[in-house]
Structure formats: structure tokens, C-alpha cells
């Protein structure tokens, strides 16, 4: 018997489709292609996927929708996120309500997965020129009865004679192009040789340029750097959201999705491969001049590639026009879970103690074996993994920053969806990973969101009045200089979170233990108890400033979430320093999109990492992507990557005996001038010297 | 606009279908899956594809068929093959008549491409045990926090420790199976290692056997030898017709098909790949016991492979049950054109002087890249090519016979659809190829056919009466001891051809120059002029003995065709001997199915090769296939193959200055006792000493 289906329509997009009866609204949204926030990966804990099931007959769609068409309300799961009034209106958690009959669903703006503002531009870093792909042009003698050796041996003999290349191989796809290429331009060809050993492309005539792309696959965002492998130039950059976000926000949610969903691994793998292909497409599209500017010069001589690859504008200047086949090399850096999921490797062991990856070593995989749409005989270089929670992205950071070549002791913090730490210098290197949770990226907070328009990214709180001024992404003036209706605030993004906490602390709204300072806030209307949850909260933006018709607040629970994250980071740093036997680091580098936007002073105020001179704190941008690019342009960096992956000592923080104690202590806001000498003058004395140090009891429940 | 189609029904099979209007009957037969002989590859010269277009309304199929529904008669092309009477009946050449409207076509038995009797059993040859695939079973320690190294590195460390294996790699498909395999049987796995460098399969638990298949892809037939790579046993053999036969009988016809048909190369490649997959399927099916004998023992312990691979019969004895994934290695030998077509390499250069192949060297190609349906990470070893007309099949013959290790001078003749020659010993080796044409395999003769039931394979002609006795394939008694209606003669196959010519000569029916001896045949009703062609012909089997309602004859033109073939072979041998500076060979080896069936004495009578003691003439069966099997079981043979391919000197006979003269001379039947001392006593004196030696004028026109 065929599976029973029901009709579902999503508003405001109007997308509609048939889905299997009994599936939940999130599953239906995926099937129909509507993006709803599902940060926890349907574990029913994040409360982000609130939707409204509409009541009534909708003429336009000829559909009778009713709240009764989904499975009943589940008090223990939904009451935490939806109050009685909203419940009456038909609000439900999308991951809880299963569809029994036709429905029309409204997705409120807050629940829509917005397109994130990805900021992963390429930085200038020093890379020695030694790409894995090198081009060799050669003219061969035509065969005759005196010399009737076969095409491939003829080519090899020529390459040995002219360039000293020996022992070359090639695959069947390249071989198929050989006889045609040799005969197309009078036995002149350009071959692309990979790592001095395999011919991966043969083009007729003389070709001067080859291209490659370095890709950084993050849990949330992906970035691609299209490079000329002959000049080392970055030709274009492109980025996109990791399409797997719909399966869950963090790596554990993705692993859970794989473990609980038959075919889940394949779906996630296919999605990210498709994403990478679109990333590549976007990167090369930028090299195509607009059609109208182009007039093809017929019979143009001396062009340095197949005709279709080069088009000429009217003035005669040559335009780049890169096609997907022109991409001859790819390097990819990712954390271990993303690595495993992209490559179709079971990520389950990575999620279970002692978290062994399926493989540490880098892999060279034929593009076609991964369905990555470039020159099909080319290889994809997958960066090596350090450990289950520290992958090739961390190796990329190492390659870009090279702490192993430095005398200074560097602390490198890469805050993505997971926090990754590197500590050391040329003598010794440690890495570790800490579960900062998604709070640092704005998730799992009452009004957390990704760095998309409407996200609060900068905040200032007056220490006298505790009044708030702020800025949002997508609007270029602060609240103070704007009309309320222009702000369209929607939530708080990652880089805003730190600001919020630092300002709450500096202005005295919260104390060093992270609780709201009731005394100071007694007269302040921004401070109140939420009528539903009975939790204290502080209003950052009033309803009239927002695009979601609600006050945007930070709750006591939110503060705790951020404290947990910053505590994990700080405790991790301290444990590594202890293991290394040092009291102080020379430099702090903050990598990741977070590092680009974070205010160094506020990071210090919050105690995100151990004390350091503010001048020695640097944002290093997308260092993981830079490392990937280094590996693309210099193959020795690939060996270095494998060396790093096996020689950096990974510390599993959670098994360190003092971790729990250190972690709780680190949840406090910094207050001791001996530990944070550089805070002096930045944080007012009365705040800084609130009292003695001591652990914070993590009283937060889910 | 959609393409217009017409209905076609083929009788007697009754197969029907729609085909594009305007295609010819042969094209239609391919689309519908009816095999019609098309030896010349639709060059409209072989006249094999005669079919009858029926007239009238056919109730059963609700079709109105008419001779007028195909394009008009073409006198210059069709009159050669179809007389006026048959033309009236609706007979046409299938490759000439294009279908304009619905038709019903009758395919006479003579035009049906019969299933050939393939005789390519494995011979006992000495092969040293050194397969490319070796199995290693290992028990690993489970990961814990003390030792949390990844799965692959854990496996490699174990293999280094226990077996000294280092530097191993693996591909992404194998890697995907790793975590599951390690955990399935308590960290005991068996890995298959290819050439000491790549892990191509990982199976849980202890596995004792691995399998491979050696495949000989001939122009006409293919054979597979399924071997146990751990015991070297041949487990089963299978064979099939090369499915490309429908595109033309010989390599030039196939190359022409590629050059004249868009997508022709892909079609031929896909067909042979599909053929190989069915060959493999047949070979492994023989290892599956009949279902009814099987009862699966539940919870059986200690089996040496995954449960599904082993089934147990009731008495408890273990049965082999090989699945396609258990095939872990494949070697393929083929001539250069078959090599190119199978691998999708442009075969055109191989058909044009100076005939350079696309590649000489052997290739290791991932099975999945060729869509060969075995363990997907395994490699297909494609034997190397010597030259455009001498390929890996000839290398296979070399590997099996090893003339390069012998002091004796060996002449090895491999008569397939092409004739390939090897001459030499440990000091010097020559190879060459000669266009024997398909006559030696029964094609392009008036009643030539493949070695299928009804084919005359042995013949004797009484030297006194010139009366004929013969045997056909599929009937175990000679004509003398049979009723005429039991013979069901249909034509003459390859091994019968030599018999016919030798007997015609020995019995004095033809003279040494190959013309019918009119004096001797004056009174013989078997000798006559064909009323249509005015060509002399000799009846081998009367109409009442045949299943096609016609006398089966050998014509003067047929005799010339065979003379051309044998002349080419003989002249080739003599030229090679001249080049080598020798007058006599020590041994003659005849390879190929032909060699298995040929009567050594008659081959000598015909002068197929230079004189040799009859005891030193050996049939060596399918030596090409044996060589392929040697390469499967001993990887040093693969290096030897590449050595052979580059060190055997290929002689291009057609460019030798004396070739044409030698060739014409060699078309004569042998008569000189000084050149053929061993003919003395075998051929009657009056025949042998007919007169002085001299070239035969090749008066045969197409």
C-alpha cells in the first residue's frame, strides 16, 4: 500500500507540498524546502522552531486547516517555550507537532532560518610558491613508421627529455582525452601534473594558468578561496551557509541526526557536497564578465587556452573566464565531524568517548568519487584530523599561524560553533576543544540568532542609568541616532553576545557571579521578572524597536549560558597553561568570524581568556581558511599539516581531574587584579573588586 | 517535434518495437534486440544480413507490412547477394533497406547470429604463487582514553607491528567500511592488500579466501577464469560472445563503426562492459549451490567470513558461495582495438598508419571507474599493448608460453579474427600481425559461419571419387553414418575451413594454385558453375543434408579468401624468419580456439606455416587467457608483461619491401619438398609435385 500523505502549506512563503502523514512540521519543512530554525537538531530542547498552525478554510489553497490536524499539545515539552495565550493562538513546536491531516502553517520571523552574513575574506599571509599542480607545455613529434610509439609513451618520453619528469601515471579519464588533445593543436599540449606524479589534465596548445580552490567547511558557514595556482592570487571568494544547519546547529546535533535517521548521513553528505558545488560555481561566476561586454574575436591567434575558456572584450583586453573544469586542485579544512559527514564516514565514534576519528591522516580523493564538480581527474585534499573534536580546521589555523616556528608562547582561540584552543611555541604545542556550546554564536539564548540582518552586534550600557544603546546588522546607525521603527531588531548574534555580557558586567547590571544586581536595578523598567517563566530578565530593545513585535531581552538563563561558554574557554586555557607549566601567554590570537568582530577590550573584561596586554591580542580572521589556502598553494604545507596533526598534543579537558572545579571558578567574571592586571582602568573599581574569588554554582537547568 | 516512429516486428522471434522512421533494418534489429549477422559492420559488402520483408496484413500483430514500406532496391549493392527470384519474394539486405512505414521482417536462419560454441577451457600451466591481493587478519586493541588514536592509524599500526606492512593507503569507499568492520567482530578484521600498498577491502573477522578473475576479451568471444587467489585453483570458467559482434565482425569494422556513428564508441564500450559483468555473474553463479540443497544454520560459529557469504548444506559441509564483492582482482587481456574500445579510448589512430596505440603500458583502473561490478575499490589490470595490431592478448600468449626463457626457436601463431605471430627465443623476439581476415573463422565465405551447431568442422574427400564425408557441430556422427535429415548442416566454421582446403588439395579437387581442377572434376556432379554468379563451386553438403534448404558449397572465391589468409600467415612467418636470419623453426605452437581444433597434419598440408616436424607442432589452447591468468596469480608476471610489450620487436609486415611478392607466392599450396620435407608421404606425389613454384595472381575481386 502506498504511504498516506497530507497537504501542507507554509506561510508567508506560500510553499506547499504533500508529505507523509505523521511526520512532524520540521520534517515537512525540509521536504518542502522551507528553512525553519532547528538549532538542537530536533532534540526538542531549543524551542527555536515555534510555528503557528492556522485555523479555518483557506480558499486560495482550497485547504481546511485546524490545530486538531496535528498531534496533541505536549505540556512537558512545549510549555517551557510557549505561553498559554500563544498556545490558544495555535503556536506549537514544529519538532513536536506531528501532522495528521492537511494544515497551513505560519512561520514567524523569529523562527525563520535567516541567511547569515558570512565574513570570511582572505587575509594576506605569507605562503611559499609550491602548488601541487604544475603546468608543462610540450611539442611532440608526430608518429611515423620510424617512430610509432603510442601516445602516452610519446608524451612521457617528451616530458622526461624536456623537463626531467619520470614515473608519471594518469587515470583512465585523462587518458581518454589524450589522443584528441595531441592532435588538436599539432601535437602541442599542456599537461597538469599533480605532485610530480600524476597527469590529471591534458589541454591542447599552450596554457598558462591553472586554478584551485581552498574551502573551509564550518559547522555553520563555508567559505571558498579561488586561487590562481600560477600567480598565487586570490581571484575570488565566496561563502554560504552550511546546508546541514537544517539538521541541527552543532556537531553533536548532526551526529545525533545520523544516529537516529536512516539515510541521515547520506542526506547530510549530499547536502554539503551540493553546497560545495554551488560555492565553486559562485566563485567561478565572479570571473565571468557580463555577457553584454563580450564580443568574441574570431580566428584569434595565440590565445593561451582552448577557445571557449577565453573571451575577448571589444578593446582587445583579455578576460579571465574560468570554467569548472579549470579548477584542478581543491583543499578542504573542516572539523572532524564535518570531515566525516562530508566524506560519508560514520561520525558516531567521534561522538562517543574516547572519540576516536575514523582517520587522522590527510586524504587525496578523486573529485569524481565525491561528486565534486571540477576537473574530474583532480584530487580533493582533505586536511588531516588531530582528534575527534579537533580537526583539519584547527590544523589550518596551525598552518596559517605557525606557532611551531615561534619562540613566543601563543594562545590561539578559534571560536566557531565549537571552541578550539592551541597553546605553545616551537618547543611544545597543545590543542584542546571545549564545549562552548552555540551560545557564543547566539544560539540557545532566548533571543539568540545568527549574524543576520536585525541582529544586535554592539551594545553600550550607561553605568549610571543602565540605559542601553545598541547597533544592529543591516542598519548603519546606533539606536541613539535612529527612529525606533528603523532598528528592526530581531535578536542578538555571536559578536553581540560578548558585548552584552561585558557591558552588563561593566555597568553593574550583573555582579561578578553573573546574577542580576537587584539593588542597582530596583528603579529600572528594563529589569523585570518574565510573567511566564518567572525568570529575571533585562530588556535590551523595546518592542517598538523590534521587527518581531516583542521586547528583546537577555535572561538570567542566557547570562548563565554565556558564562558556561566563557568558563569552558577560560578553564581550558588555564588547564593547558598548567600542563605547559606557564603562568602567562605572550600573544592571544582570536580566529574565526567571531575574532574579526570581537572587541578585544570587552573580551578581556569578560575573562574569555587569561590576561594579556591588549596590544598583544589579535584577531586573525579565518585562519582555518588561510591554512587551507596555504596547503593549496604550497604542497609542503600538506606534509606540515600531517606533521601538525600527529605532533600537537591533544588534551581531553573533560578527563582532567581539576577541570570541573576550574570550570566553575572560570564562570565568574574576572575580578582579581593579580590575575588580570590589564583590566585595571578598564573596569570600574567598584565592579572589579566585588569580593573574593570562588566557584559559581551552576544552578541552571535546561 | 518528437521523432516519427514506425512499428517493426521480427520473425520468427516475434520481437517487436517502435523504431525511428528511416533507420535501416539492422539498426532496428539492434534497437529491438534481435541479433542479425552483420559481419562487415554495415559497410554493405558482406551480404550476410539478408532478410525478407513480408507482404500483407498480419492480424496477430495488427500490422500492414509491405515491401514498399522500405526504401527501394539498390541494384549495385544488393544484386550481388540476392538473385532476381529472391528479390521478388521480398529479400533485401538489412543494412540497405531503410524502414519508411510499419513492417514485419523475417530473418532466415542463415542470417541469424547464432550462439557460438566457445571453447576456452583453462589449461594447466605453471604459475608461481604471488597474487597482487593478499589477506591479513589482525586483532586490534579497542580505543580508550590512554590510546585514542583513530581507526585507520590503529589498523596501520597493527599491520606494521604484526606483518611489517608500511606506507599503506586506502580509498574513500574502503575507508567508509572501516569503522563498521572494526566494531562488527570485536576488533578482528581481515584486510585485502593490493600490491603491498593499498587496502582495497576490510572484512570483519577472519576470512581465508580471496577471489579474482582473468578475462580474455576476444574480438568474437570472451572467456573468464574465476580463481581462488589463495589456492590458485580455477574455480569456474565462463564465456560469452563479444556483444560488439553486432557492430561488425573484425576490429576494422568496429573502428569504422566508431568513426561513422556518433556515440558509437560509448555504445560498444558499454556493451562489452555489460558483457564482462554478465561473464562475472555466470562465473560466480557456478559457485552457488542450488537453493533447494541449502539450509542456513543459524548462529553458526567460527565461519570464516560474513554470514551471508557462506551457506551450509544439511549435512553440515560448507559450500562456497562467492558474491560479486568477493571478486577482488581482475586481469584483462585483449587486442589493442578491443582494449581501446573497452576503455573508451579513441581507437581511430589504431586504424590509421602508422597505427600508434593510445598507450602501451598496462593500466590499473578502479573497477568502479569502468562500472565493472565487483568489489568497488579493486583494480582492473589491463594488459599492456605491443603495438596497434598486437595487444595484450599477444602479451598473454608470451606470458603463458615464455619463449623468452627458451633456447628453442618458437613460432607461435594465434589465429583469432586477426592473425598474430611470435617468433624467437631468449635472445630475440619478434611479433607481427597479419590480416588473415575473418575467413579463418568462417566469415566472408559463401557458407562461412561461426563455430555453432550445424557448422561443418571436419571433412574428408576421397582422392579417387572426390566424394565428401563430413561432420557437423552438434551431431556426433559423420555424414557416412547418418541420415541426411540428421545432419542439419548450415555452413562451415573456422576449424572446418582448413580441413576443406587441405582436403580439396590432397584429393586433387584444386591444384596448387588454388583453382578447381576441371579435368579431374569433369564427371563430378559436385562441381558446377553457380547459375547466378557464374563462379565455379564445389558442393560439400547437398540440400537434403542442410537445415537451410540449400546446397552448401565452397566457391572459387572462397578458396581464394582462404588462400589470402593462409598466404598472409605464411608470408608473415617467412618474413620474420628472414629478419631473424633462420631457415627453420624448432617448435610451432598454435594458440586460440582454432589451435585447439585444428588438425596439425592438415595445417601443414595447407602450408599455414613453415615446415616443422609434426611432433613439434602443438595446439596451446587459449594461451592469451592463460597469460592473463598468470598475471592474476603472479604479479611479477605483470612487470614481465610490460617488459614483453616493450621488448618484443614488432614488425609491420605491410611495409616490408618483399612482402607483397612473398605474400602472393605464399598463396600457393605447398609443393616443394625442400621447403616442406615433412609433407612427404602426407600429400600424394602427383599433387605435391605439380610444377614449379611461382606467385599466384590475386585475381579475386570483392
Structural class of chain A: alpha/beta
Q: State the CATH superfamily name of the largest domain in chain A.
A: Domain of unknown function (DUF4445)
Q: What portion of residues of chain A is helical?
A: 25-40%
* Strand fraction of chain A: 15-25%
Query: What is the molecular shape of chain A?
Result: globular
Count of DSSP H/I helices of chain A: 19
What's the pLDDT, averaged over the residues of chain A? 86
Quick one: CATH class of the largest domain in chain A?
Alpha Beta
> How would a crystallographer describe the biggest sheet of chain A?
6 strands, mixed
Oligomer: homodimer
How many structural domains can be distinguished in the coordinates of chain A?
Answer: 5
Spatial separation of the terminal alpha carbons of chain A: 42 Å
As for the CATH topology of the largest domain in chain A, it is: Nucleotidyltransferase, domain 5
**Which protein chains are joined by the largest interface, and how many residues does each one contribute?**
A-B, 42 and 42 residues
Radius of gyration of chain A: 28 Å
